[in-house]
Amino acid sequence: GWSLTNSASYSGSQSMRLINHTGNPAGAVDAFITPTYNLTNITNAAVNFRLAFAVRSTNSSDQLKVYASNNCGSQWNVRYTNSGLNLTTAGLYSSYFTPTSAHWRLENINLNTVAYNNKPSVRLKFEYNHDTGNNMYIDDINITGTPLVGIQDVEFLTSLTVAPNPARSNSF
After folding, report:
1. DSSP code of 148?
2. Which of 78, 94, 118, 127 has its CA 20 to 30 A from that of 54?
3. Quick one: which of 171, 166, 169, 130 has its CA closest to 5?
4. What is the pTM of this model?
5. What is the mean pLDDT of residues 142-158?
6. 168 falls in which pLDDT band (50, 70, 90)?
7. Cβ(53)–Cβ(110) under 8 Å?
């Protein structure tokens, strides 16, 4: 499952890594959920993150979905989907994939809807559906937005907990 690693990152010393080179069964799903972000007094909300991923086969149908929730995870809405060869940032790797600086791509997600703007409890869930992919890395998850007039500081929670660790098919 997903875990923090210091083997590769776009910036800093750690990223989230899903070891998939050994070939988890097709259809298996692994996910991690971010802490709650307080978007009270924020409009034009968006999220961006760095992704590094390789496939082991040109027939890959691996899929990454990112969901958002404004009620601490009681309900999730898909905000991003990418799959197959469109998901890869590094092409075909038959060996164990660890990204270099050239393998990272910036992904952007629009959260600028009434469901997330000005909400106190927004969370993201990154969900990976296995096929014939290789290892995947996620780094630099950033929430952006425009403060409402008169608001100067926005405090976001910065810790991330993956449980259980290690995980076989699901993390939360």
Report:
1. P
2. 78
3. 166
4. 0.83
5. 68
6. low
7. no
